[in-house]
Amino acid sequence: MTATAGVSINKFLAKMASGQNKPNGLTVILPEDAIAFVEQLPIEKFHGIGEVTAAKMHSLGIHTGADLKERSLTELTHHFGKAGQYYYKIARAEDDRPVEANRVRKSVGAETSFAQDLSDVGQMLQELEQIAQIVEQRLEKHKTRGRTLTLKVKFSDYQQLTRSKTMLASISELSTIFEIAKALFESIELENRSIRLLGISLSNLDNAKQTQVIQLPLFQNADITWE
Questions:
Q1: Are the CB atoms for 82 and 48 separated by under 8 Å?
Q2: HEC letters along the chain
Q3: Which comes out higher in pLDDT, residue 218 or 122?
């Protein structure tokens, strides 16, 4: 039986460390190495940055963590909305999301209502990817996975529809969530209508695998998180 683990000072770095020596290995990112690790990392390798967002970052000249770190919070929020705050922090090896015990729930999801209706398909997909990122983070927080993905779309005329797909195996990874949500989205006839709200949720959760997470200080003066 193989297993991969990552150890570091916060959830983001622990997640990144866990992907370094797959399929069977342990990676530790020490506090003093955190910033250097992030700076050299290709942007498409960042946990929480999918292919659509990575492509947009490349078009803006952002290819590595060091490039991302050079951008101001104002610039990142201008291009990526609320997700810009997250990108600003992780470029500096910062992630203040707590590790918490989980409670059983029936679904995990996220949705965004837009101040201005979206009419550009590329922007719709970018927003959908950011919603998928939030869903992945919430699944991770609650230590669960789901088999049924539901896409919610509300148009500017307030007409609302949903599309769902149930998988044979539970999922929780950003790339898979976005891939399925994108396929469901592309099955909808937009008919030149603009969109007011997008949402993604996962149900049929694997609650049996929810476990309490214990966070222990393995390094002096630092809290270390396992992933």
A1: no
A2: CCCEEEEECCHHHHHHHHCCCCCCEEEECCHHHHHHHHHHCEHHHCCCCCHHHHHHHHHCCCCEHHHHHCCCHHHHHHHHCCHHHHHHHHCCCCCCCCCCCCCCCCEEEEEEEEEEEECCHHHHHHHHHHHHHHHHHHHHHCCCCEEEEEEEEEECCCCEEEEEEEEEEEECCHHHHHHHHHHHHHCCCCCCCCEEEEEEEEEEECHHHCCCCCCEEEECCEEEEEC
A3: 122
Q: What is the pLDDT of residues 18-58, one digit of tens each?
A: 877 665 568 889 999 999 999 999 999 998 888 889 999 99
**Interval 88-103: pLDDT, tens:** 999 999 988 776 544 5
* Residue of 60, 43, 39 whose CA lies nearest to 51: 43
Is 128 in contact with 200 (CB distance < 8 Å)?
yes
**Nearest-5° angle of CA 139, CA 143, CA 149?**
35
* C-alpha distances in Å from residue 25, one per residue of 14, 18, 28, 172: 13, 8, 10, 21
Angle between helix 174-186 and helix 121-141 axes, rounded to 10 deg: 140
The token duo for 75 is 């610039």
- Cα separation of 182 and 209, whole Å? 27
Q: Which has more pLDDT, 210 or 83? A: 83
- 136 sits in the region (left: phi over 0; alpha: psi -120 to 50; else beta) called alpha
